[in-house]
Amino acid sequence: MKDVQNEKDPRMVPLKKVGIKDLSWPLKVLLKNDGYQPTVAKITCSVDLHREKRGIHMSRFIEVLNKLETITPDVFEEILDDLIEIMEAKRAHLEIHFPYFVWKESPVSKKRSPLSIECFVEAEKDEDFSFKIGVRVPVHTLCPCSKEISDYGAHNQRAFVGIHVKTRKFIWFEDLVEIAERNASSPLYTLLKRIDEKFVTEKAYENPRFVEDVARDVALDLEKDTRIAWYRVYVESMESIHNHNAFACVEKGDFVLEG
Q1: For residues 227 and 220, what is the distance between their CA atoms, to the nearest angstrom?
Q2: For all residues of the chain together, what is the average pLDDT?
Q3: What is the arithmetic mean of pLDDT over 87-100?
Q4: CB 54 within 8 A of CB 9
Q5: Sequence ranges of the domains in the chain
Q6: Who contacts 212 (Cβ-Cβ below 8 Å, separation ≥6)?
Q7: Burial 197-235 (b: 16+ CB within 10 A, else e)
Q8: Is the confidence at residue 242, as pLDDT, over 80?
Q9: What is the average per-residue pLDDT within 41-55?
Q10: CATH placement of domain 15-251
Q11: pLDDT at residue 112 greater than cutoff 90
């Protein structure tokens, strides 16, 4: 059969990324406390395209992705190496997004329930191999300004802490979740009894945080973690009394610690 994709393209325009997007794929995610959790990921996979080639063979992405069962750097690098070889490309890219559930106990009643976390893994290979992971964690923030100027109460809301990191050593998704939660006004829980609601409400009131506060303190925690070579932090608050959201972001290299 005629190989149309492999025809020579007269326009001679190289393309940096050509591939497939939003492919649903079953995966296993290793748990910090042993075992694994099944999930379904959305996959984006691409290669660069030489200026003389008209197109790529899409089916080859799926064939290579059959190796992807569990998320590890070694498996990702092997897949990218295979794509570079089979697609005759100089660079390959693989990105996945998936839900991950962390089981938590409510603070007082100790009722267990799962908290859904959005996770992210991105890998790229040319001459070097790059591997990044990330989380988007729901948290609770309470406004310091509202607390200061109000006779009683303070506006508070759900917020999200996004952390993307490139690591020197292995790091668990749970570790990043813990960093996000401890720098918010309070963690969130799926199941709360009345005694838990009282605890969370009062904890947040005693620990007011702007999005700027959360972003800075998460960054300082990441700076101190020797496993992390690079990071990006993005905090967004779903404002409860404004018709807009508030956000703050910081990336490694944006500031220098004194001392």
Answers
A1: 14
A2: 93
A3: 96
A4: yes
A5: 15-251
A6: 248
A7: eebbeeebeebbbbbebbbbbbbebbeebeebeebbbbb
A8: yes
A9: 88
A10: 3.10.270.10
A11: yes
pLDDT digits (tens, 9 = 90+) for 13-36: 889 899 999 999 999 999 998 899
Burial of 194 (0-12, 13-18, 19+ CB in 10 A): exposed
- What are 223's two structure tokens? 């700076």
CB 95 within 8 A of CB 44: yes
Residue 119 CB contacts under 8 Å (≥ 6 apart), including other chains: 29, 97, 98, 99, 100, 133, 134, 135, 136, 173
Q: CA dist 226 to 54, 171, 177, 204, 257, Å?
A: 45, 11, 17, 30, 15
What's phi and psi for 211, nearest 5 deg? -60, -30
224, amino acid identity:
K
Phi, psi of 75 (to 5 degrees): -65, -40
Helix axes 73-87, 58-65, angle to 10 degrees: 150
Q: Which residues contact 127 (CB under 8 A, 6 or more apart)?
A: none
- Rounded Cα distance, 44 and 42, in Å: 7
Q: What is the pLDDT of residues 188-199, one digit of tens each?
A: 999 999 999 999
By three-state DSSP, how is residue 174 classified? Answer: helix
Residues 55-87 have pLDDT tens digits of 778 999 999 999 999 999 999 999 999 999 999
DSSP type of residue 97: E
- For 159, the token pair is 């917020």
**What is the model's pTM?**
0.92
